[in-house]
Amino acid sequence: MDHVNELNQLLDAQQSLLEQLLAAMAAERAALIAQNASELMAIAEHKSSALLRLKQNDDAMAAHPGHSLLTSDNALAAKVESIQHTLARCKHENEANAQLIEHSQASVNRLAQALQVSRNASSLTYTDKGKTSTISTLGSSIEV
């Protein structure tokens, strides 16, 4: 098999893996919105596996003896450009999901603080980071 065909196969595999990653990120977004923790764990494993295979495929292309053809051959260069576009979409989706995760974490933290306040308002204090904390031993170590 010649270098162009081998690189074509590697590029096709790379595009397929990126499309799988995009689909996983869409599923991740839906699971984040639905707050489905078990689904998120399964998606995280799938994403991790896809990222590992992407890295392996990328390493194979970088080590390929015909690597320079990726920029000099017009057909291969067009595939590389398409892959870069799909990769940019993956990065955008990943950033959007990261923002959704940060928003969810902030909401959970606010809820936890509200629950802490309502549970035991009489012994409420704050940590050095400004978060609420209850001290159940407040005043128990005072000796007379």
UniProtKB/TrEMBL annotation:
Gene Ontology biological process terms, A to Z: bacterial-type flagellum assembly
Keywords linked to the UniProt accession: Bacterial flagellum biogenesis, Cell projection, Cilium, Flagellum
InterPro entries on file: FlgN-like, FlgN-like_sf
Biological role: Required for the efficient initiation of filament assembly.
Family: Belongs to the FlgN family.
Protein name per its UniProtKB record: Flagellar biosynthetic protein FlgN
Originating species: Shewanella amazonensis (strain ATCC BAA-1098 / SB2B)
